[in-house]
Amino acid sequence: MGIELEQFRAGTKLPPKKEHKACSRRQSEPFIKGPIPCGWMTKAASIPRRNALVVGIVLWWLAGMRESRSQLVLCVKRCVPFGLKRKGVERGLRDLESAGLIGVVRKRGQCVRVELLHVSEQEPKDK
Predict the structure, then answer these.
(1) How far apart are alpha carbons 123 and 39 in whole angstroms?
(2) Which residues contact 97 (CB under 8 A, 6 or more apart)?
(3) Structure confidence by residue, pLDDT tens digits, 78-120
(4) CATH architecture label of 33-116
(5) How many angstroms separate the Cα of 22 from the Cα of each of 6, 8, 31, 90, 102?
(6) Where are the domains of the chain?
(7) Alpha-helix runs per DSSP H in 8-100
(8) Measured between alpha carbons, how far is 22 from 53 in angstroms, rounded to an integer?
(9) Which among 30, 51, 55, 84 would be 20 to 30 A from 44, CA to CA?
(10) What pTM did the predictor assign?
């Protein structure tokens, strides 16, 4: 006496499996990888010149590609697609540095090296 497995087989056939398209990030548009701290962005947005915020966005884009917030190499050609020229990049870096959002190492004839700094979430209280 043997057990026949056919009697346990389901009578209906399963629907055919759907083919999944391979996810290809190389073909998609560039994106800014987060998380980007809101305190950092708020402080950058409060700087009067627009250049500082745009340079900050470029820096966060570079940080996402490198998966590191330090030793970012910023050349002017990286900022051109964002509508900035050399002087605008220099002003934006200077404004972000004076706001305490980045640390910058400048060497003559080389691209600047930038580190994104942590910003405290608490605003100083007025006296």
Answers:
(1) 9
(2) 103, 104
(3) 899 989 999 999 999 999 999 999 999 999 999 999 999 998 7
(4) Orthogonal Bundle (1.10)
(5) 37, 36, 19, 41, 38
(6) 33-116
(7) 38-45, 50-66, 76-79, 86-98
(8) 35
(9) 30
(10) 0.72
